[in-house]
Automatic annotation (TrEMBL):
<dbReference type="GO" id="GO:0022857">
    <property type="term" value="F:transmembrane transporter activity"/>
</dbReference>
<feature type="transmembrane region" description="Helical">
    <location>
        <begin position="9"/>
        <end position="26"/>
    </location>
</feature>
<keyword id="KW-1003">Cell membrane</keyword>
<keyword id="KW-0472">Membrane</keyword>
<feature type="transmembrane region" description="Helical">
    <location>
        <begin position="127"/>
        <end position="149"/>
    </location>
</feature>
<keyword id="KW-1133">Transmembrane helix</keyword>
<dbReference type="GO" id="GO:0005886">
    <property type="term" value="C:plasma membrane"/>
</dbReference>
<feature type="transmembrane region" description="Helical">
    <location>
        <begin position="209"/>
        <end position="226"/>
    </location>
</feature>
<protein>
    <submittedName>
        <fullName>Branched-chain amino acid ABC transporter permease</fullName>
    </submittedName>
</protein>
<feature type="transmembrane region" description="Helical">
    <location>
        <begin position="83"/>
        <end position="102"/>
    </location>
</feature>
<feature type="transmembrane region" description="Helical">
    <location>
        <begin position="55"/>
        <end position="76"/>
    </location>
</feature>
<feature type="transmembrane region" description="Helical">
    <location>
        <begin position="179"/>
        <end position="197"/>
    </location>
</feature>
<dbReference type="Pfam" id="PF02653">
    <property type="entry name" value="BPD_transp_2"/>
</dbReference>
<feature type="transmembrane region" description="Helical">
    <location>
        <begin position="235"/>
        <end position="255"/>
    </location>
</feature>
<dbReference type="InterPro" id="IPR001851">
    <property type="entry name" value="ABC_transp_permease"/>
</dbReference>
<keyword id="KW-0812">Transmembrane</keyword>
Amino acid sequence: MIVSAIGQGMLWAILGLGIFMTYRILNFPDMTTEGSFPLGGAVCVTAITSGIHPILATLLGVLAGMCAGLVTGLLFTKGKIPVILAGILVMSGLNSVILYVMQTPNLSLLNKPKIQDFFLQLNLPNYYDIVFLGVIFLAIIISLLLFFFNTNLGQAYIATGDNEHMARSIGIKTDSMKILGLTLSNGVIALSGALIAQNDGYADVNKGTGVIVIGLASIIIGEVLFGELTFAERLVAIVVGSIIYQLLILLVIKLGFDTTYLKIFSAVILAACLMIPQLKKALNLHFLPQKEGEK
């Protein structure tokens, strides 16, 4: 079960990396996540059941997620709709898109090929195929992100998130950077959705509910545990945070709690992690000796 949780954590970490690109770099939450995640899974599973190779099907899921992010970006930058509302509009619309793609609320991959089947010939122990799959895709995504953010385009993207007015004053097209960020971010998120759908063996129209909480938990747990880090270390910290989050959920299940209420446990874990920095400050102020002259 622990190996399974680690494998799941790695696949969910891809979601965290996607959310990181908007939430931490561009400094706004993107609600498109809860639509692009199940969209990636729906497109991928539908493609596989139609006879398309799992790798190509996964790439089609990524492309679908990128299209969703592009629509949000255009509504935000060109339509001047607030980013949260733009994300909610696209997320709501994607519900119908997913139903149109699958022609049913859920679609099974029973007796169909999956991307992790490529590890069958290695005769790995149970769940180790998911760990291998997670390691491979995380290595690819993190390497691509590090390469991208070390280019001039990537630096312009970071500058847009750091100080939009300054970035615009030096000639950076900040609207284009936001569109790019939302497009790439949702492509990564859809990749996570496609891989998790294959791991679970089915796609479901409601699979995106609450996934933004899981992604944020990966980011926050990593930041709380490791503090100040370099950019590359922050990406790795998200992976570690995601694995720890899945292990915490496993612990909740092992303690006998009803799995029907996992969403509230997820919210509680995230809220607790968000409050840790404030609790540390409060404890330091209370217990550290005051300097002379302070009250």
